[in-house]
């Protein structure tokens, strides 16, 4: 409720009117006189000053140049989220400005928010290794929209970007394994072709903080042995577990095989190495080898790697 006992002097009344007409709103003026914004509005109405509407107040806050820029970007097919980031206008205020300028609300089918050029760019970026999450953030759309755009472009989606789960696999001595990914199956087949003695997840190493760690592969030559971890993406939990494993078992040799190492062996497609996760895994694999004083073998000469360990 406005205060009825608020009666400013003649000089104060002129100053209030000047400030309001110059562009300030009532809530900005009110703290100067320790009253509510409604009290200032009631005073201005009483002296015949026109009170600006919500739309007038919004337009007054946003410079005309930014409004023109927002309209131009909207015509080029940018989404409201993208325009808000580029112009610095809040999403709600931007939507109100566009509606008052006669811009109709777009279809509820969200992939139409992206222009054909942006849809083509999205499809190309996915083909070279970008993930759903990266594309969602960049283009301001959901995963369903990304999937629809890829389907329209005839691009088959990746499953967790390293492929679906694989069926049981039988090695050269008739052992049956169920691998977590086709990358592990490809590496196992590579070991079989080299007639190496290997085991899959043969031993569990107990840790203090991370409880335990089970490497993927163990390769043996007589009394020498070395462990290999086939890994596709980085996480804080994985890196902490590996670092604690090396601290607790300094004599056990471990090499991480990421997309770069597997592509070097010809086991996976080369485009995987351009993925952001592949770069992280490769960098961490180098760090692990440096801490152990080993050179990166890329598993190209596994016998030499195991004997050197």
What does this structure look like?
With 309 residues, the chain is of the alpha+beta class. It folds into four domains: 10-52; 54-105; 109-157; 169-308, Trna Endonuclease, Chain: A, domain 1. 48% of the residues lie in helices and 9% in strands. The protein has 15 helices and eight strands. The chain has helices spanning 10-21, 26-29, 37-46, 54-61, 64-75, 80-87, 91-100, 116-127, 132-139, 143-152, 182-193, 236-248, 259-264, 276-292, 302-308, and strands at 169-170, 176-177, 197-200, 205-206, 212-213, 217-221, 224-230, 254-257. The strands form three sheets. The protein has a four-stranded mixed beta sheet. A two-stranded antiparallel sheet has the order 1-2. A hairpin with a 5-residue loop joins strand 1 and strand 2. Helix 5 runs antiparallel to helix 6. It is elongated and about 100 Å long.
CATH architecture of the largest domain: 3-Layer(aba) Sandwich
- End-to-end separation in angstroms reads 82 Å
N to C succession of SSEs? HHHHHHHHHHEEHEEEEEHEHHH
- Please state the average pLDDT score: 79
CATH top level of the largest domain is Alpha Beta
Shape: elongated
Class computed from helices, strands and strand pairing: alpha+beta
Residue stretches low in confidence (pLDDT < 50, at least 5 long) are 108-112, 305-309
What portion of residues is helical? 40-55%
Strand order of the largest sheet: 3-6-7-8
């Amino acid at each position: 409720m406005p205060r009825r006992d608020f009666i400013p002097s003649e000089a104060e009344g002129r100053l209030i009117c000047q400030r309001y007409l110059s562009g300030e709103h009532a809530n900005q003026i009110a703290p100067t006189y320790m009253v509510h914004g409604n009290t200032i509005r009631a005073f201005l109405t009483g002296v015949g000053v026109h009170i600006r509407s919500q739309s007038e107040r919004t337009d007054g806050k946003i410079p005309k140049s930014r409004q023109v820029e927002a309209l131009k970007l909207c015509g080029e097919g940018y989404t409201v989220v993208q325009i808000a980031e580029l112009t610095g206008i809040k999403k709600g205020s931007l939507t109100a400005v566009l509606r008052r300028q006669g811009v109709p609300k777009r279809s509820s089918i969200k992939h139409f928010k992206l222009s054909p050029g942006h849809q083509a760019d999205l499809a190309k970026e996915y083909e070279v290794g970008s993930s759903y999450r990266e594309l969602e953030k960049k283009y301001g759309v959901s995963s369903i929209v990304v999937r629809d755009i890829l389907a329209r472009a005839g691009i088959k989606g990746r499953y967790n970007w390293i492929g679906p789960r694989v069926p049981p696999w039988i090695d050269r001595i008739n052992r049956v394994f169920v691998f977590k990914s086709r990358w592990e199956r490809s590496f196992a087949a590579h070991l079989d072709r080299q007639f190496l003695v290997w085991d899959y997840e043969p031993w569990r190493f107990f840790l203090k903080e991370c409880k335990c760690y089970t490497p993927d592969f163990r390769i043996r030559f007589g009394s020498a042995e070395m462990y290999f971890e086939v890994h596709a993406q980085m996480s804080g939990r994985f890196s902490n577990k590996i670092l604690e494993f090396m601290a607790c078992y300094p004599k056990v040799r471990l090499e991480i095989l990421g997309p770069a190492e597997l592509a070097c062996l010809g086991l996976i497609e080369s485009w995987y190495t351009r993925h952001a996760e592949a770069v992280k895994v490769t960098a961490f694999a180098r760090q692990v080898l440096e801490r152990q004083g080993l050179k990166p073998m890329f598993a190209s000469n596994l016998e030499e790697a195991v004997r050197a360990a």
